[in-house]
Amino acid sequence: MSKQKSMVVGFALGTVVTAAATLLSTPKAGKEVRKDLKVNMDKMKSTFSSIKRDGIQLRAKIRFANKEKEEALQETAASTIEETPEEMDQEIK
Fold first, then answer.
1. Does this model's pTM top 0.70?
2. Where are the strands (E) in 1-93, listed by range?
3. Burial class of residue 93 (count of CB atoms within 10 Å of its CB; 0-12, 13-18, 19+)
4. Which of 17, 21, 65, 83 has a CB 3.0–4.6 Å from the CB of 87, allowing a cystine?
């Protein structure tokens, strides 16, 4: 499992354990607890959606940067190959 997936799974598991512990030790009435859970679940869904969106954007940026780097390397290689032996000798001197 990748580091990112492991971190997300750990975060989700921690959230569930914390919620269960809170439910078992809360002095609130059941109706209040359900209301709070709904609010917290909505916040958590929003947070996960934001993390997912940011991850997708980051992946797209990385792919774009890699593509640009690859094109630059190809251009550099092509221009180096096109140099004549005399030009290469002049660069060395």
1. no
2. none
3. exposed
4. 83
